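Reply to dn_fold:

You asked what the input looked like. This is it:
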Amino acid sequence: MLPVSVGIVYLWFGILKFFAGVSPAEALAQQTIQELTFGILDPAISIILLALWETVIGILLITAIWRKTALLLALLHIILTFTPFLFFPDLVFTKIPFGLTLLGQYIIKNIIILGVLLALLKKGGGGN
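and this is what came back:
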């Protein structure tokens, strides 16, 4: 049930990113990808690639296809979601280190997903 639950979240958030202005994380995601890729990727392309990545993870987790691979892709993704704390502290903190903006709270909840992914990987990942 946990892989399916996480898969639904990934699928939902991924699909939102295919439609400009629909995802509340769109601008931050584009800014973060710009930092991570040193500005190599065009923001319009980067958000589509992120949408594809998240959607594929969601589908793989829901269908139990290549589950371990999906978990590893999700683990990499979820770790990268924390990089705005380093790149854009003014956007995520009201008062460092505990006062979070709504955006910071949106990111910090990913600790739950990180924990689930690690537990599923420790359990064996469901095989490939």
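The longest helix spans residues 43-63.
Hope that clears it up.
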